[in-house]
Amino acid sequence: MTTSPLRAHVQPRTTARPIPQQRRTQAQRRAESERRLLDAAAELIVERGIEGTSLAEIGRVAGYSHGLVHQRFGSKEALVERLNTEAVRMFTTATLAAVGTTRGLAALRIVADTYLDLVQAEDPLGRVHLVVWTEAVARASERRSYRVTWDRYFRSAFAQLILDAAADGTVRSDVDVDAMSMVVVGLLRGVALQLMLDPAGATAETRAAVLDHLTRMLAAD
Amino acid sequence: MTTSPLRAHVQPRTTARPIPQQRRTQAQRRAESERRLLDAAAELIVERGIEGTSLAEIGRVAGYSHGLVHQRFGSKEALVERLNTEAVRMFTTATLAAVGTTRGLAALRIVADTYLDLVQAEDPLGRVHLVVWTEAVARASERRSYRVTWDRYFRSAFAQLILDAAADGTVRSDVDVDAMSMVVVGLLRGVALQLMLDPAGATAETRAAVLDHLTRMLAAD
Predict the structure, then answer these.
(1) What domain of life is recorded for the organism (chains A, B) (predicted)?
(2) What is the pLDDT of residues A2-39, one digit of tens each?
(3) Most CB atoms within 10 A, among A32, B78, B169, B187?
(4) Domain B5-218, what fold?
């Protein structure tokens, strides 16, 4: 199972420096088992899709019983929702850290770059949202509604970044913010999905082209 | 079942002006049953995904037996491949008709506009490639390889359009053609998928923003 420093914030790794003679509390054991189950779920779902992954398989890969997976998450839908929440938290944490005090168009470029970094990172948590999202396209009724909510949230976050950058004068002021958010999100996801299918295309030139492109389309003259 | 004028080229509609006293040949009946089965398959796959659609269901919706579907296509994989071929043919025909004698950057804009038209048209044949493609992302081994081949073909078609437009001076000459093809395809697919999930976002402003954007990123100064 892959792990990454980016995951560190999700749950404190109590196993890193074990303290002898002191038993872990129930809360610590619970946090540890949840983290391992979410890691296993991300790995399996990215490899096989939601439909192709069972709770039993997730438990097996994480080293727990089927019963414990049910006890922790209740259903596959609930686990997928939780996994998505963790992915959002991880993206938010990584992005805020990368952006730091940068503002305006430069911040937008950093967010886009961080997004592509996480999608291509070893940790499958950075890709799981794409699999969940694309399965929602192919499965009309069941998963579409909560994907739509998340899609709108994701676009509104970019809309805010674009508004901030227009306010500080680094993004042109005639941008239609809602339409441009759809374009930016579309571009990032569309490129990310091509890279997932065909990693050979993931060259430094592609990456530079995506970011240049973002600048070209948004920069104030 | 939905049909559209765009579908007319797929098979001649012999039922439009029936000629009394003349029985249809076996080839005509075969063409008619294939067309109806492909229509039903596109409709069901767009609604439920490949996994959620059975050959028996396709036969039922088209008004044929399960046996006939097997006889015509052999397997679901073969049917999906055939459906994709029909979608490519339909896109090619519609795009060539829309482009006419236009060349350069203007032709690129027309191709992008036609792509979004077909994705949002009533006929599900215009959307089926997105479902097939997104399911390939979620199902690593089985369908990925032939999607990759098609992805590369699709990008190379855009690369050719960009090269043509650079040659006639309407697209800037410093474009990295391979990287920009991935950007253009990513943008179009990423926007198309958002629109499929959330049709409320499909406003005239979004559409205009996508095309303006394409111009802005590619136009010669």
Answers:
(1) Bacteria
(2) 444 334 444 443 444 555 556 788 889 889 999 999 99
(3) B187
(4) Tetracycline Repressor; domain 2 (1.10.357)
